[in-house]
What does this fold into?
Amino acid sequence: MIPEIGHFALILALALAACQAVLPLLGAHRDDAALMSVARYATFGHFLFVAISFVCLTIAFLSDDFSVLYVANHSQLALPTQYKISAVWSAHEGSLLMWILLLAGWTAAVAQFRSDMPDKLVARVIGVLGLLSIGFLLFALLTSNPFDRLIPAAMDGGDLNPLLQDPGLAIHPPLLYVGYVGFSVAFAFAIAAMLSGDLDENWARWTRPWTVVAWLFLTMGIALGSWWAYYELGWGGWWFWDPVENASFMPWLMGTALIHSLAVTERRGLFKSWTLLLAISTFSLSLLGTFLVRSGIIVSVHAFATDPTRGFFILAFLAVVVIGALALYAWRAPALDSTAGFNAASRETFLLLNNVLLVVATTLVLLGTLAPLIVEMLNGGKISIGPPWFEVAFLIPMIPLVFLMGFGMHTAWRKQNEGVWFKVLKIPAIAAIVIGVVLPLLFYGRVSLMLVVGCTAAVWVVATALVQPYRSWRRKDGAAGITRSALGMSIAHLGMGLFVLGATIVSAFGIESDRAMRIGETLEVADLQFQLRELREVQGPNYTAIEAVVEVRDGAEFIATVRPQKRQYLVQKNWMTEAGIHPTWNKDLFIALGDQLGDGSWSVRIQYKPMIRFLWIGAFVMALGGMVSVSDRRYRKSKK
Amino acid sequence: MKPRQQRMLAVGLAVVGVAVAAGLTLRAFEENMMFFVEISDVIAGEYPSERNFRIGGLVVADSIQREEGSLDLRFSVTDTRCELDVSYTGVLPDLFREGQGVVAHGRMADNDLFIADKILAKHDENYMAPEVAESLGKHVQDQTASLGGRSSECETG
It folds into this structure.
């Protein structure tokens, strides 16, 4: 009964989404206030019914209703309750339902927190979001209904993939999806601007906070995914340039370009058609990512099981969205663009460079991700592109980007007084060069070109990001108080600097060692002694495990006891590595237990990962910067 | 800057960026591209000899041999038609088992041993890399067809 209610609610949501799409758009076109006022209520109704549907699926999981195929495939009686909930979005059908829920949620948020936006703009944005909702709801109802029954019902479920039974993975997809889906709001604003022909500084002011919020959630989602891959997959890497990772990274890169371009559009009324194009591209890349992940077209350890009809549906949807949006763009955008120019020594120039470099980086990642598909289509065989290619290709636009960032932050709109650069940037520049060379030498005893470039870039960004908050705090030279918007920018850039520092150090000085180890034996890795004290059996709620107790010492000094496990889940009978990690602020000690080697010894992977936490801390600081900047007062005007 | 110059600058930069990107891409793709070669083709001697490539198939039952106390390991992989010996040193992924699908990166040492430097794990036991699935499917078909007289014997090169 409950699953049927969920299914029915989803159908009702589709009907309401149709109202939400058609009536307000028509109303805005005809200037009919009554039709436009439908937007708000249709949106809330649509959201309510999707929420009911989502709750029904959750109840099916919590009540172990194995007569629902999706539940039977992804849950099990002994599964801990929190994972029964996260199992709802653990596979294709449920995660699509979550996507639909979040899209409806974003739309309801736009209807509710409309700031001082005019009715027509609200109606158009909501209408466009309604059109997108129709597409996703049809996708779910026609190809991926999570409420399909299994008759006769299973006695017990097939269990949730053990890799997904983890708190990191329970929250990673929701955060990622909030970001992905949030870019559809920026897309809807872009389409609305093109439909109406009004694109002014106010439009950018309304669009910006939505885009930044989507971006900051995507940032956190990607960071959590990276962290999860690091500890749960037992590999100890933090980024693999896997197609599915790239699928989330490309919208992030493009979205980063978009929020910078929006800044120019808001403050200076420039880059208008460029901003529109970025908004369209960012959302299109989100859709492309969905297509890559859910169609099974690309070889990836993350890919969902293959289904050609689904792939075809998303591809068709992607084509409609991209072709429709670009056609509208070709038709309307030329009329919107401003004719004003700008000075070469101005913040506008730096933001232009930022945009060019980010777009080049996105293009390279896209190229590397799609190359295997293209080569296969041209009958060139089945190839794969390895991480080394991505690392080199990606760094080429990124190194100048990071160095230019420090200048851009301290360059005025319109026209920069060159003397100010010298005055403000002198100290950060000296700090960057000195620390950039000394830090690796002092703490790790070796330098290389990449290391110096990385450390210098990191210190440069951190130092230049701190200048403005510091000067306004000390009221230096009569500096005015800092706005939330500028403070947010400084924090986000500071996060970028921390990230670069972590990435540089861990890439250069990380140590990974696969060894054989028996009880009582001591191995030496990174000048630390790892002794295997004992092996014992541990009982979990739905697994049994062999746990190794490894004591880590630095000479006579005791550092930590690390307990890696090898778990066997009771239903799927698979062995799973649960790495043991001893994290501190400046390094991680990582031990993963491999296989039994026959003579009582085990294979182990021991890793020493200096500064790896800075990667994720940096990403969260970036997200925090986004949060601070959207709390700026000018985004909170209420309707006059 | 005048709007026209501004546009020229943007276009110019983008062109330079893409040109650098394209140059780099063409050169580095060559070096970083890894081909997937079917086991039968490897056995027939058709594989890139000077570079790494990927193979994939099922781990043959009872083929895993390990030297006691060592990380060195040998096993055979089959595409149901031919079998290839693979050697690997290191920690294995969790879902590596006899009878299961596997993908390995590496190169041929001599004519009959593949030295793997990476064994790929998968997230899900029901998931099989599409290229492996295709390779296996093809040879199962061949075997069915061989009842009609076509050869499904493994041919060495």
User: Anything to note?
Assistant: Residues 1-165 of chain A form one domain.
